[in-house]
Write a structure and sequence with these properties.
It contains five helices and no strands. The protein has two domains: 75 residues, no CATH class; 55 residues, no CATH class. By secondary structure, the protein is mainly alpha-helical. The N and C termini lie far apart (58 Å). Helix content is 81%, strand content 0%. The relative contact order is 0.08. The chain is extended, with a radius of gyration of 19 Å.
């Protein structure tokens, strides 16, 4: 039963990925292109899980990690800092043992600190002070 459900999910992810790729061809919006890549790799992971293939699952996870990283770079997002904030929040849930599901992590502060540090670096560069 689980295998069949996972196969169906993978097919739906492939369909969504293809729709994102088609939408990109029309709109030329890079958010659609990145969404296409993310969904495509998630579909590969799901297929690997469906067929209990460690090789396919691992390849899909590595490709997904690559797509996530490329997306963060493309949109200038501080992925490492965001990951650390989410990880810290998840570890709090795990140690509290309260069984909360779907906890929302506010990464707004992470993004604001990142943007502020970028502005400071640009200001220093403009002043010629460097590091």
């Amino acid at each position: 039963m689980a295998r069949k459900a996972l196969e169906q999910f993978a097919e739906e992810l492939v369909d969504l990925s293809n729709r994102a790729a088609q939408a990109f061809m029309i709109a030329r919006d890079w958010r659609l292109r990145k969404t296409h890549f993310l969904l495509e790799e998630l579909a590969e992971v799901t297929k690997g899980l469906a067929f209990r293939s460690e090789i396919v699952a691992l390849t899909g996870l590595a490709d997904l990690a690559y797509a996530v990283t490329r997306t963060a770079v493309a949109f200038d997002l501080p992925l490492t800092d965001g990951f650390e904030a989410v990880h810290a929040a998840n570890m709090t849930v795990a140690t509290e043992g309260n069984g909360s599901v779907g906890r929302v992590v506010d990464t707004k502060d992470v993004l604001m600190r990142y943007r502020a540090s970028q502005q400071e670096a640009k200001a220093r560069a403009a002043e010629g002070t460097g590091l």
